[in-house]
Structure prediction request, 424 residues.
Amino acid sequence: MPANVLVGLQWGDEGKGKIIDVLTEKTDIVVRFQGGGNAGHTVEIEDEKYVLHLLPSGILREKTINVVGNGLVVDLIAMNEEIKGLEKRGIDVANRLMISNRAHLSFSYHKELDGLSEKRLGDNSIGTTKKGIGPTYSDKVNRCAIRVCDLLDEEAFWKKFKTKLDASNKILVAANLNVLDYEEEKKKITPALNRIKPFIADTVAFLNKAVKDGKSILFEGAQGMWLDVDFGTYPYVTSSNTTVGGACTGTGVPPQAIDSVVGIAKAYTTRVGEGPFMTELLDESGATLRKIGHEFGATTGRPRRCGWFDAVATKYSAILNGVDKLCIMKLDVLSNLSPLKICTAYKLDGKLIDEMPLNPVDLEKVEPVYEDMPGWTEDLTEVTTYKELPENAKKYIARLEELLEIEATIISVGPRRKQTFYKK
Prediction:
């Protein structure tokens, strides 16, 4: 059975949670490999809507084991609340979840330091979710973090926690901010700590045995390629590797175990937070995409910046990730927009280019070069097969396939399970 990696090809919010949910119908294990509570995967099943932040999207499938990999940073309190929320809705999390003993832990002081950093940057702020993700990964790289395995020795854990809290409070005092109280933090963390303990496991051993046993595995990333800390629009990125390589380093599964890479992209483009966005629409068209597409962050509620499909950026992303299967999401949102525009090149300082510049200053200066495509007026939300799509919608998909040099495998025309279908 295959091991597939699902990666976002844009700036996140492509609909990975929904596709994971669709693909997990015949998948044994779903593994989340990077990020933290700054992710927001929305899945709609019939009339039920689920928003997941830390838990893998396969948690909604009864027979699927879900693994929180070592590449994540875990907020104990947030994860506990997420688990309780699902259990209240009848989801049997206890028999579906494993948490890597190597994952790192995120606490209140990380959030405070995150907010302080954004405040100090002022007009140059990155636009983080202030969930403490960056400071937690900083601790990891600085080799002074607290890991999930530390929870198994509570006496040692609380000693480490107090040391880190005291050090963080000194920074907050220097910035004239309120400090965090150790006893209050302990009171909040303890119930979550006790709840999470039973899920702790050596997931590296588990996953490699699953590969050997021929289990089907789906690796789930958060955010998107252009938020990757190494390859994204730096410094306006997240703090982890959102690309396919993160699936290996974030889980302990070797590269040769990966059978295919599934890339997911909206039929247009969105971005949350600061940073360059080459095809951003600041006119009525952008507002229309935002309204019809319900483009507001699942984690923060922030309105997403919207623009036309950027084939230059998306092709670069597909090449870097070795994508061999393409999912096109939210095709229905483009109904009644005509002409549709696809960015096929950039102009930089008067010169035509078809590759992504590295320098963010250049990215801010580039002008998108558009190709017009005819639109359609039909409502796509009831379409259940590729054959039912209007001819112009098929032509639009075909042009994206041609530009990206990848065949579309899955098409989505709405948020529910039944609104997703295979092209063939």
Notes: Residues 154-174 form the longest helix (21 residues).
